[in-house]
Design goal:
alpha+beta; 3-stranded antiparallel β-sheet; 5 strands
Length: 153
C-alpha cells in the first residue's frame, strides 16, 4: 500500500544495488509481503535509535522535547529533511524555543541520512510498525563500500 508524504508517492519504482527510489528519485523503502524490509530501512531503524530517539522519541513518535518525525515527514520533503538534519533549525515562539542541532558533521548521522530518512518515511506511511523489523534484506556491497568511504575505513 502506497500513501503519500512530503516527497509524494513512496512506491519504489527503481532499485540500484539494493537501494530503492520513488518515481521522483527520492530514496524510499521496500517492504515485502512477508514483512521483510530493505537493508536501508533496517539500517535507518538502527541509526535512528542510536542517534535521534533521545530527543524525537522511540520510533519517530516524538517527545515533550522534540516533534514526532513520523508526522513531520508527512509534509516535509527529502531535500528539506536533509537540510534540517545537516544544518539544524531553530523555532522560537512566545511560549517555547525548539532547537534542532546541526548534525551534518556527525558521521554517525551524516553517513546514514538516507537510511534514517527511509526509515522515517516508512513510519510516516505506516509501512513499518513500532518495533525493530524482524526480517531484512542482506546488506548490499554498495552499502558496505559507502559506509567505509564515509566513516573512513
Amino acid at each position: 500500500m502506497a500513501l503519500a508524504d512530503g516527497s509524494g508517492d513512496p512506491a519504489a519504482v527503481k532499485n540500484e544495488n539494493g537501494k530503492y527510489f520513488d518515481k521522483d528519485g527520492n530514496p524510499t523503502y521496500k517492504v515485502q509481503a512477508d514483512g521483510t524490509v530493505d537493508w536501508y530501512t533496517y539500517s535507518g531503524y538502527r541509526r535512528y535509535h542510536s542517534e535521534c530517539h533521545v530527543c524525537h522519541g522511540p520510533d519517530g513518535e516524538g517527545s515533550t522535547y522534540a516533534p514526532a518525525l513520523k508526522n513531520s515527514l508527512k509534509t516535509m520533503n527529502y531535500t528539506d529533511f536533509l537540510t534540517v538534519v545537516a544544518s539544524g533549525r531553530k523555532n522560537v515562539t512566545t511560549s517555547q524555543e525548539n532547537v534542532m542541532p546541526a548534525l551534518g558533521d556527525n558521521p554517525n548521522v551524516a553517513c546514514f541520512m538516507d537510511d534514517i530518512y527511509v526509515y522515517l518515511r516508512a513510519r510516516a506511511n505506516e509501512a513499518v510498525g513500532r518495533v525493530r523489523p524482524a526480517k531484512h534484506e542482506d546488506k548490499p556491497e554498495a552499502a558496505k563500500q559507502a559506509e567505509d568511504s564515509c566513516i573512513g575505513k
